[in-house]
Amino acid sequence: MFSFKKRPFAVALAALSLVGLAACGSSGGSATTTQASGQPMTLTVLHVNDHHSRLDAETASFSLMTASGARRAVNVERGGFTRVAALMESLSAGKDNVLKLHAGDAITGDLYYTLDNGKSDAAMMNAVCFDAFIPGNHEFDMGDSNLKTFLDFLRAGTCKTEVLSANIKPQLGVSALAKTTATDYLKPSAVMTRQGQKIGIVGLTVSLKTKTSSRPDATTEFLDEVSAAQAEIDKLKAAGVNKIILMTHQGYDIDKDMAARISGVDVIVGGDSHTLLGDAGLANFGLTPSGAYPTVVSNKDGKQVCVVQAWQYSHALGELNVSFDASGDVTQCAGTAYVTIGENFKAASGAALTADDLSAIRADIASQSSLRIVTPSVTAAAVLKPFSDAKTAFGSNKVAMATEELCLRRVPGTKLDSSRSSLGDLCNKASRVIAHGGDIQQLVAQAFLEQGKTFGKADFSLLNGGGVRTDIRPADVTVSTIYTLLPFKNTLVRLNLSGQEVVNALEDAIDNVVVNKSTGAYPYSAGLRWTADLTKAKGQRVSNVDVLLADGSYTAIGLATTYTAIVIDYIADGGDLYTTLKNVTAGRRENTYLDYADAFMNYARKNPTLARLPVAQYSTQGFVDLP
């Protein structure tokens, strides 16, 4: 456990070092503007999170008012980093009180990352010029050295973005992140000056999830988030900094809980849970937010804290306006998470839209502050073009056609993962998804099972729901689609397991979901079915486990029977706390070295018309949600 003990000399030294950082911050503000310290001020925070290499705009369907007075499904472009760049420029123009923040998981999730290892992401982030960035869990998917490579790409620009995390401690001289000093690449905090006043920014990266769901170096230490945050805030306060922003990558619910456990925090800018925040009226447009933007809670001192997050995948940009009094306490939180869209509207049905329809649509959008028509930045588009051309050339080949929505959902129910789908309420509120989980996870599990049977024996497949990254909409499925769906560098592993080990592995995964809220651990299988009850204790949550027989029927799993499972190497190595699988001995484990994305590509080529599987084949047949 990390502990921080205040010593007079250490505090004085910290104060000197923090003063030296006071003029940091590359954009949206100036240290030359003078304002007496201790005066009230309003700060604007522009922020994104979890863009996951999703740099391109995508087509989305919204429920929009037309000339008839009825809402219709209307398609329009949504998001894209060039729109993020344009809106950031617009919202910060002429202002000296702006901070631009990125709350982690910039990389992995799209063919861009597969092709260039984050170089395109860094280029687009430098087009925006973020003041600070924190690593999320996915920044560690390929270890410390791969994160260093990405941060080197980021450093190649002129923005001097601060990279912050107070609770990550790479081993000095061992980790690529700390070859010379402990702060070669990661600093615990930074102090930036806006309107003559100091703002302290502290970074935090979720500890357990990063250690269990990603692949940081074994020697890199992840400290307790609350203790690390409080220690760094205390340092900043001792140095005379009275406005504190905590940048976190741990999830919206955890952010709200943490606020009440920490003294001195004023703002929490978060990521990880891909949470859409906004007013309830967004539901009329087919997007139901998980809370208000901003969400206002109280810290340990009983003072206001503004908690924000800006959804996912370059779909949204948050604008938080926070007012401080002369003592540095928050007096008001206000703002909007803007979902950026284009202006070329088409009826989802294919029917023509009249001029009156288009006028009604634009008026409807104008009535909802969370929807913003944005013209992409020409400058940012020029930066993206060489990367986009390479992606298009590689990824444009058609593999199959999806005939219906294949919805993304990690955990069934409504408590833990209710806003995951990029298709909005069409998927998030679908009864089959709430009852059984993600359509696309189930289809991927089927692809893995068929690949396992083709290259040797396999009774069933098993995967973690978080390994599947996106919905598939009714459209062509291309190489690019598949590498966006399955963007990681995973292979298929064959394991010989007893029935009891299978049940234990399911219990391991669901325990991680319940205890740690690590939704990506939730299991999916082709060839297995079960009931999950999240209200029970570990060892009792999984029941009615059945195995598929060759004739298409199911039978109860034999606890002493040996089965052959096809899984990805990530969970075979114990990722997402699949501890039972990690303990399988070498003689019962074979790495096929078959790429998991290729497995789905082979399935799609053999089944060029992709549709949902029968619900009777979904692995979660019964589900009891958390209270």
Task: Identify the CATH class of the largest domain.
Answer: Alpha Beta
Q: What does the overall shape look like?
A: globular
Discrete helix count:
18
Number of strands: 30
Rg over CA atoms, rounded to whole Å, is 24 Å
Helix content: 25-40%
Describe this structure in words.
The protein has 627 residues and is α/β, with parallel strands linked by helices. It folds into two domains: 371 residues, Metallo-dependent phosphatases (Purple Acid Phosphatase, chain A, domain 2); 229 residues, 5'-nucleotidase,  domain 2 (Alpha-Beta Complex). It is 29% helix and 25% strand. It is built from 18 helices and 30 strands. The strands form seven sheets. The protein has a seven-stranded mixed sheet with strand order 6-5-4-1-15-16-18, covered by helices on one side. Strands 8-9-11-12-14-13 form a six-stranded mixed sheet. A five-stranded mixed sheet has the order 23-20-27-22-28. The longest helix is centred in the middle third of the chain and has 18 residues. The N terminus is likely disordered.
Give a brief outline of the structure.
The protein is of the alpha/beta class and 627 residues long.
